[in-house]
Amino acid sequence: MRALVVRLLVVFVALLWAPSAMAQITALTLDRDGEPHKSGFQNHISRADCEANENFEFTMSVTAPSDFNRIELWISEGADCSLPDERGSNGLCNEVSLDALPATTVIMDIDAKDIADAVDGIDECDDTGGDSSSHVTELYFLLIRDGVGADEPIPAGEFYQFLDTQVDLLGPAPPTLQTVEAIDTGVAITIDGTFNGDAVSYQAYCDPIITGEGAGGGGAGGGSDTAAKPQGPIGGGVVGGGVVGGGVVGGGVVGGAAGTGGAGGTGGASGTAGGGGTATTGGSTGDGGSGGGASSECISTVLVAGEQPPSANACGSPLSGTGSAITVTGAVNDTNYAVGVAGVDDLDNPGALSTLLCATPKETISFFDAYNSAGGQGGCIGGCAVAPSEHTGSAIGLAALAGVLLLRRRRTAAVGRAWLGLFAALAFVLPSFASAQSSIDDNNWRHRHRPEPPPADVDFAFEVRFAPYWPHVDDEPGLTGAPYEATFGNDAQFYFGLEFDYMPIRIPYVGTLGAGVGWGYTWASAPADYLDCPGESKPGDVECESSDETSLDIMPMHASVVLRADELMRRTGVPIVPYGKFGFGWAYWSTSTAAGVSEIAVEGESENLFGQDVTIGLHIALGAALALNWIDARSAGSLRESTGIAHMYLMAEWMNAMLNGFGGGQMYVGTSTFVTGLAADF
């Protein structure tokens, strides 16, 4: 009998809980109306999401919905919202929303602000209870049936726990702002470069400040009788982004002397002092009030240190990765700017703003300004479409090299092996120098020790070239002065180049004849001078140097006829190959500042003159290459068999790049110099 009663109780309990035990939430999806965050952060709520009140649409399927009255959404930071005690007044779980259960498919539209404000310490999207880290939250979707289980834990399977949700309304801690320097139409910013907390980038924020020059009002004149008269009015200083300057009270004195003029108003942040007030007549002439002092404090009514900055004041590109320099362009010259920097996290939340520093952008003299003022003819109206950047110029040069590589398709495999072999050749040359002494001591240089001559079909060559480079800009006809020397000085610039030669013609007793293409790169940079130098300073003086950089980038290229006289080495074993090159040269050049490619307004033209152009001319070179195979002939032979490289050379040549536009009308960017480097033939 007792066993039967127990069985009946079990059946009763099973029947009582059967509907709810089978009920569950499945296939939960989230769709939001705003821009999704990057991978891994799609379900997070940022400050911008909260302030925009972005809509979160949760769609889910519910089995046996008729067994329940509603579905509730709760949020917690680690608490188990399936337990009634956690959903009580202790605040471990907070209710976000509740809905009825009309069908098996439930759609809950929840605003991001409602979810965020349900987190402890957050009110109206203002997080006062957290730090720069995010609130790691859990969303609980609970199926509720009135009168059943109200004071008991909700059975497993009857709620859905949505774990991948975080609320992060605070950005990272502010960086240390070190310097803010004025440049032409912008500012140059440096920070300590340390990425604090969850910062992934740093963003600059700028606020233009109107500087004050408020003059004090004049003091009223004193009476002319023997009685003292009332004091004159206070001078009214003009507000200039700082504090209003109070004018000195003008006082009428016995005997009818005029009242003293009011003092000038205090200037705005880093502004100019206000002028003194003017005395008025009445008795004897009174003295004008003194000028108000200029405020040295950087004050902004929009940007506040320690607070989150308005997104509308963001300026410049974000600084990400490593580094400590931020350049802001697009500012207005002669306008004072308050500047601060804030960290930005993965959700694009700006953190608290750093301390503020002020700077006033000033017009500078770039190299292109000096060149154009001196009568230079180079530059393109509206900009050159030939090569908008040094990367495009590089691509042009390398594409020319690649084109030559494809001239003989039957030797594609050999060419590919040769490129790989260049790296192996370096590994061969360096250790060979170390062992050269022992190899030469045992070598009597008889014919049997000499390397075999290379096969006749070895007719490609590749060079890596280095040289000092002095651009002959100041040699351009018609220039008044030397703008290049005045800007960059007389020091040589570093030049790096690549060249590929194809020489299919062999001239008996002379060598090989063919064509070559080359590409090179060099640059010069220097601080740009302010247009208005202080005092008696001249351009180039330290007092005139701004934090802006002006630069000149040059990419010389050429296509030449190449003669390599290697028959001497082939027939006698003397490891020297004289060579010569003659052909057509051209160079893309560009001059720029921190704001980009330099440009100048031209009278009568609708578009500006840009500091970029192509200069053409001639290319001549004479040199000699020392074959390094004699150091270790056996290793050289192995290298040729495995890679196709017949010889490695140490080369030296005189190069004259006559890039002068064939006499004028273009910037002279060529040079005459000595080049050295490594070469290989295959």
What does this entry look like structurally?
The chain has 682 residues and is an alpha+beta fold. It folds into 3 domains: 22-167, Immunoglobulin-like (Sandwich), CATH 2.60.40; 177-210 and 298-362, Immunoglobulins (Immunoglobulin-like, Sandwich), CATH 2.60.40.10; 423-451 and 458-681, Porin, CATH 2.40.160.20. 16% of the residues lie in helices and 36% in strands. The chain is built from 10 helices and 31 strands. The strands form 8 sheets. Strands 21-22-23-24-25-29-30-31 form an 8-stranded antiparallel barrel. The relative contact order is 0.10.
What order do the helices and strands come in, and which of them pair?
Layout: H1 2-22, E1 25-32, H2 47-51, E2 55-62, E3 70-76, E4 93-100, E5 105-111, H3 112-117, E6 122-123, E7 126-127, E8 135-144, E9 159-167, E10 177-183, E11 186-191, E12 201-209, E13 267-269, E14 294-295, E15 314-320, E16 325-329, E17 336-344, E18 357-359, E19 364-365, H4 367-373, E20 380-381, H5 390-405, H6 412-434, H7 436-441, E21 460-469, H8 483-488, E22 493-507, E23 511-530, E24 545-564, H9 567-572, E25 576-593, E26 596-597, E27 599-600, E28 609-610, E29 612-627, H10 633-643, E30 647-658, E31 671-681
Parallel strand pairs: 13-14
Antiparallel strand pairs: 1-2, 2-5, 3-4, 3-8, 6-7, 8-9, 10-11, 11-16, 12-15, 12-17, 17-18, 19-23, 20-28, 21-22, 21-31, 22-23, 23-24, 24-25, 25-26, 25-29, 27-28, 29-30, 30-31
Helix pairs in contact: 6-10
